[in-house]
Specification:
With 236 residues, the chain is an alpha/beta fold. The chain has a domain of 163 residues: Vaccinia Virus protein VP39 (Rossmann fold), CATH 3.40.50.150. It is 41% helix and 22% strand. The protein contains 10 helices and 7 strands. It has a 7-stranded mixed beta sheet with strand order 3-2-1-4-5-7-6, with helices on both faces. Helix 8 links the parallel strand 4 and strand 5. Helix 2 runs antiparallel to helix 6, helix 3 crosses helix 5 and helix 8 crosses helix 9. It is globular and about 45 Å long.
């Protein structure tokens, strides 16, 4: 399904050296993604080059720009078909990964992939704003990440409550995220975060990408996250 040599080369650009075993895992993941996609809507990208670049490489880029200490606890909020979380776990098996999505069929797919390639991951079938209120998950993670899920003003409220003080919220965006960030700064502060940095780069198909890193500097006030209807109607 995927070209091992080409995939390894794409990963190396971000300082990631994939072993033969890891490449086999990505290959199986790609095969299952295409197969399951015939029965449910997981992705609009089903060609080998597209999967390698726009799903796998795009996910691995986070490892260049974000410092993930050994054994970090990471939650991928609104993970969809498992990006970036599942790819990060393949590349960094030491991380403790939780994949959260509101659609159970996606969780069923991710559980199947994890079983097939022998990855120890936790999956949660929850709405992000519900999980962020639950003591079991609130303020428990070193990193909460999300890739191209929603506007940053809304996304911050969904994700930051999961992060423990001293941890980080990482938002993976397209090329026009600087304006979103300008609008979201005040809300990020309200949620207990402080913008650390923004990285702009391109992946190998010349698509523009942005990674925004937010430090969690204090606990999120208890009224957040609000119900999704309020978040969308009146973002912070």
């Amino acid at each position: 399904m995927i070209d091992f040599e080409k995939m390894a080369q794409k990963a190396s650009v971000y300082g990631v050296n994939l072993s033969q075993e890891q490449l086999i895992m990505l290959d199986k993941y790609a095969e299952m993604l295409v197969d399951w996609n015939t029965r449910m809507n997981l992705t609009g990208i089903t060609d080998s080059e597209g999967i390698m670049t726009r799903h796998f490489e795009d996910s691995l880029a986070m490892l260049k720009y974000v410092d993930l200490p050994p054994n970090s606890s990471v939650i991928d909020v609104g993970t969809g078909a498992g990006f970036p979380g599942m790819v990060l776990k393949i590349a960094r098996p030491d991380i403790q990964l939780t994949l959260l999505d509101s659609l159970n069929k996606r969780i069923v797919f991710l559980d199947a992939v994890a079983r097939e390639i022998h990855l120890d991951v936790k999956t949660l079938h929850l709405r992000a704003e519900e999980g962020g209120k639950m003591p079991l998950y609130r303020g428990k993670y070193d990193v909460a990440c999300a890739r191209a899920v929603s506007n940053l003003r809304e996304l911050a409220e969904y994700c930051i409550p999961y992060v423990k003080p001293g941890g980080q919220f990482v938002s993976m965006k397209g090329p026009d995220a600087a304006e979103e960030l300008a609008q979201a700064r005040a809300g990020i502060g309200t949620l207990g975060g402080k913008v650390k940095t923004l990285y702009e780069y391109t992946i190998s198909d010349d698509s523009g990408r942005t990674i925004i890193i937010v430090d969690k500097i204090k606990n999120t006030p208890p009224q957040f996250p609000r119900p999704s209807s309020k978040i969308s109607k009146k973002p912070l």
